[in-house]
Amino acid sequence: MPTLYRDYRPQKFSDILGQNHLKITLQNEIAQDKIGQAYLFCGPRAVGKTSMARVLAQTVNCEKRKNGESEPCGKCNTCLAIQKGSFMDVMEIDAASNTGVDNVRDNIISSARLAPSSGKMRVYIIDEVHMLSISAFNALLKIIEEPPQHVLFILCTTEVHKVPATIISRCQRFDFKRISPAEIVKKLSFIASQEKIEIDRIVLDDIARQSGGHLRDAESILGQVLAIGSKKISVEEAGLVLPHHHNQEAIALIEALAKKNAGAAVTLINQLADSGVNFKSFIAEVLLMLRKIMLQSAQPGLAEKLGLDFGEQVEIQISRLASEYGLDNCLLALRRFLNLSQERPVDLAQLPLEIAVVELCLDSEQKINQNHSYKNLTQITKSISSNKSEEVIEKNSATPIKASADSKNFSESKVMDKTDSVSIAPNLSASEISERWPEVLVKIKKHNHSLSFVLQNSEPQDLCDGVLSLRFRYKFHRDRILDSSIRSLMESSLADVFGGKVSIDAILDESRSVEAPILEDSDLPVVEHNHKKEGSTAKSLDDGVLGSLLATFGGEAV
Question: Is 157 found in the same domain as 12?
Fold first, then answer.
């Protein structure tokens, strides 16, 4: 297998993929003859840190480079010797193999005092510098701080957090980034043309995506593909070497979700199961696609800034899906598949995925409405009935409904009022009301603190045809809610929360209702003196009528 990453290693700044923000800075320093004494190249693996260090070493020692130029000639004896690794004044040290302080003293400190033998500068490239011991860093610290004029240090690391701050502060730090798939495809196409082999563009896109932004990985995979030996490599031939990724199947599944076609989605899943697909990996593919759609829908161009590029053909399909699927549906699917990826596998591997896609196809609209309808309905209600809201409040304030023992007449009167309104709140069950009830209490508390406490002791029932039934245990709680000013405040707050006009039906629960008790000596609980624990008296006072008062109004028995 050819070692493409060595055969096609960059020899000039222009050959280095990406990292334009770093190349411009270094080239300006070289052109202005303001080269630093120590550089720290940090970032992910296989993105060009060591290659950039070698090009920098070659540039500062190039015999034919003129003033104002920033590229090495690549043809002089010095450049050729550095390319071959035989130039004595450029020392590349592997810190992982030379971690001790003795190696630093012998290989760096002692030789740094000597003048260059044949070049202009003596360059030390220390790869994986974070592997040095603390004593080695301390020994290196002084010479990096005040090196001789003819010495240049270039430190490379993938774990900059392990490098002492004292070392970092004495270096010019350059942070490398992962290379975009488009740039990797361009380099792979160049290598294939130099090798005189024709490769399908889909194969190159797949290699670039699998590399994860690491050029050396992409070149290694390409070397495996070229080892097939054909002068023209198709997708089928490359599939013998490359692990198959299901981009098109993931896009087809998302397209079925966008069209709410549960049958097509389930059929696709079973076809994947018959072909022996690992569903955990497939779900990860779907999540990547959905993430791309989410970012593209949230802000155009954001995904490209984050390096999410799946190749030209896939990008066209993703752009089309982003416009069809919608951000709300995409977020809902992302949460569902993210939860699915964390579930344990079952005997029937495709079943959890089938359940997920059927839920998304059949129930996505209901779930989205459940999450977002209240806010939207509130906005619609305000825009439609903004001119009528004051009339509703005045009407309710001017004609309060007096409490009566017959709650049926009260409910019928509220239904009649409801028919006069343009928009009423949607019907909700008691469980749905309970989920939203804390929001009601917060709104009420802003205007009337004690009323919030009263509502905490009520039991909201179903909201049907704009009428919300509230059950109360105490009559004086029910009577307070029926007060005209309190009723107006309540209905206004409920309209904001539930997105439409809401009337109140205050019901006294006859099975549990009690009048406000008047305590006498006979009502107090008997405290037995044969209890030896200190908390026994307080516990006994919490029972009976006094306990009910404490539960209703708060406080403690003293």
Answer: yes
DSSP 227: T
Calculate ∠ Cα 264-269-275, nearest 5°: 130
DSSP sequence for 335-371: HHHHHHHTSPP-SSTTHHHHHHHHHHHHHHHHHHHHH
Instruction: State which residues form the domain around 189.
Output: 181-238
Mean per-residue pLDDT for 35-59?
A: 94
Residue 262 tokens, joined? 């549960």
Strand, coil or helix: 319: helix
Q: At what angle do helices 49-61 and 77-84 cross, to 10 degrees?
A: 150
Write the pLDDT tens digit of every residue in 308-339: 666 666 777 888 888 888 888 889 999 999 99
Q: pTM of the entire structure?
A: 0.58
Structure tokens at 91: 């020392």
Return the CATH number at 253.
1.20.272.10
User: Is the model's pLDDT at 191 over the cut of 80?
Assistant: yes
Q: What is the 3-state secondary structure (H, E, C) of 406-463?
A: CHHHHHHHHHHHHHCCCCECCCECHHHHHHHHHHHHHHHHHHCHHHHHHHHCEEEEEE
Check whether residue 206 and residue 156 sit in a common domain. no
